[in-house]
Amino acid sequence: MTTSRLGPLLDQFDVACQRLAARMAGPVMDSGDGADTEVGPLTGAEYFWEPVPECWSVRRRVDGPGARATHLAGSAEGAWGRDAAPYPHPWPPPFTTIAWRLSHLSEMLFLRADHTAGSHRLTRDDYLISGDVAAAVAAFDTAVTAWRTALQSAGDAALDTIGHCTYPHGSDPEEPFVDIVWWVNQEVLHHGAEIALLRDLYRSRRGDQTQPLGP
């Protein structure tokens, strides 16, 4: 049974993920006022669209990393990787494509789930990154389910435990788990909004008004 403290955070997570999934897959999405707004599925062209020079994105490993990136993150067994660099990251931060943002979001959810209620062993080098937009959207759905399942095992004691999640790429070992849950929600909310905005900008760039995306 979900603790009452976790309930509102789970509700927020569910709404954010559902809206992002609908924004990417269609055929309709909640425009924000409860009305259905038509939206076409995310295309490969949008997924890889680089609106400014030197974007970070998802790339074929044979092509190597993009500008200012030092390597391609993700499993070396896959044909694709995500532009990355060790800390300190390049400044100003590179602009990132939908492909980069969605891959980052899915990886974060999936790995945090493993480090909360799984093997506690997976790293970014284990995560398979896809260059296919349908597979990337499906990977997001899988990651959402994994993280939500991990959350449902957390009671009040876990929420107050520092380091309950052992995810190695964040502040998880130093913060109460409830703060990590809140932070993950913010990641979904802000990256979801960024992906939505990029879809709107791509539509406006083409001058295509046949697929209204809503606000």
Description:
By secondary structure, the protein is mostly helical. Helices cover 46% and strands 8% of the residues. It has six helices and five strands, in the order αββαβββαααα. It has helices spanning 7-25, 44-48, 98-117, 133-152, 156-159, 177-206; strands at 28-30, 36-38, 58-60, 71-73, 80-84. The strands form two sheets. It has a three-stranded antiparallel β-sheet with strand order 3-5-4. A hairpin with a 6-residue loop joins strand 4 and strand 5 (80-84). Helix 3 (98-117) packs parallel to helix 4. Residues 209-215 have low confidence and may be disordered.
N to C succession of SSEs: HEEHEEEHHHH
**What value does the average pLDDT take?**
91
Main structural class: mainly alpha
**Number of helix segments?**
6
Domain count: 1
The strand order across the widest sheet is 3-5-4
Q: Measure the end-to-end span.
A: 36 Å
Largest sheet: 3 strands, antiparallel
Q: Helix proportion of residues, in percent?
A: 40-55%
Rg: 18 Å
Oligomer state equals single chain
Q: Give the percentage of residues in beta strands.
A: 5-15%
Globally, the shape reads globular
Low-confidence stretches: 209-215
| Number of beta strands | 5
Topology readout:
Elements: H1 7-25, E1 28-30, E2 36-38, H2 44-48, E3 58-60, E4 71-73, E5 80-84, H3 98-117, H4 133-152, H5 156-159, H6 177-206
Antiparallel strand pairs: 1-2, 3-5, 4-5
Helix pairs in contact: 1-4, 1-6, 3-4, 3-6
